[in-house]
Amino acid sequence: MGSRAAQRVEQGDREAVGELAAEESNLLQAIELARQLDWWGMIAGCVEGLGALYESAGRIAEWERRMEGLRSDCVDKSSQGAFPGREEFWRAVTEQGVRIARRRGKLPRAEELQRLCVNSDRGRAELCLEVPPEALSQPQRATLEKFAQSLYRLGEILRAQGFPESRIEEEAVSLKERLGEREKASAWALSLGSCYRDDQTVRDLTKAERWLRHSLDLKEEEDDSGRASCFCGLAQVAWERFGEARKTNRPQVELVRHLNDARTLYMRAIDHEPAENWSARAQHNQQLGHICFSLGDLDRALPYYRESIRYHELQENPEAVAETRFSLAMALRDANRLAEARRYAQEAHNDFQKLPAADPEIRSRAERLVNNIEQRLQVKKQVRAG
């Protein structure tokens, strides 16, 4: 019961947490009975169930204390490996140690324990890797799936420390592909691409693009939502490259190339984005507005900004509506299109005033923008009159 419930918790099933809570005393009793009778093979599932319960409930200290109490029963201190006949028990306790270390922010310890798990899982997987994928038995598939997950978790821990290992990441995704789990492999590749784009500790836009394109290659043609996510991720990479090129004063032709790449990819994202995904469509259109404005083409940017506002209104997101109107007002002001700028600035100001949770600073900025535009209009009027 414990192992299956733990898997359900991992998948986000909150009911499983309640079931584990109801069975907590039974799981503890089962562990004690198994220890007394040397039924070591019976303990692993109970350990996994308790770990899922304690982690979900935030009972970290109790979780850590109980796992430490079990280590002496399964861990050989000289090798840190398992006592003979207690491998499954050792594997469950060691994995819980990884989870606890990550929750405590002790990443070097988490890495140490996870490498032990990977080495153990690799040993079990070696014979399975010699079997053609179509001939794998269910237990063999489960062994390889566990190995892939173990590799992926090690990759997460390494990236969190700022020391990624491409070999580990590639092996994990490749194993998922070998097992025919293209959807999961694509999700992992997408996550890797997003990490290398967004996480400043490991930022590498070349790796980000490679993983995002690999994720796209693994998507089924009919998976419009998934393909849209990949195109959006690739567009963000191109936009980030534009930002970096601008900061380092790269040639104009290079800036324009990155912007055009981003525009093409966002348009492809919109082509695949489901019509009902208003939030994503709002973001795609807003980015297209930013791109066209950066290209110096405000007339082409305006329809995208307006479409973004429309989608934000459809999803009843007044804060996003106000922010987009505010950005558009500033763009119009900077282009000296003051009459249009005043309209959006006033609307943004009114929107922010209606939002009880709006940051006072953004309210003040919106008011200052309205006043600034009014002053410019007055100056313009005086110049014409003079």
Q: Can you summarize the main beta sheet?
A: none
**Cα end-to-end separation:** 86 Å
Summed over residues and divided by their number, the pLDDT gives a mean of 95
Number of contiguous helices: 18
DSSP strand count: 0
Question: How are helices and strands ordered from N to C?
Answer: HHHHHHHHHHHHHHHHHH
Strand content: under 5%
| Percentage of residues assigned to helices | over 70%
Classify the secondary structure makeup into a structural class. mainly alpha
Low-confidence stretches: none
Measured on Cα atoms, how large is the radius of gyration?
27 Å
Global morphology: elongated
Structural account:
By secondary structure, the protein is mainly α. It is 80% helix and 0% strand. It has 18 helices and no strands. The chain has helices at 2-10, 14-22, 24-37, 43-57, 60-74, 87-103, 107-129, 138-160, 166-178, 182-198, 205-218, 224-247, 252-272, 278-294, 298-314, 318-334, 338-354, 360-385. The longest helix has 26 residues, at 360-385. It is elongated, with a radius of gyration of 27 Å. The N and C termini lie far apart (86 Å). 39% of the residues are buried. The model has no long low-confidence stretch (mean pLDDT 95).
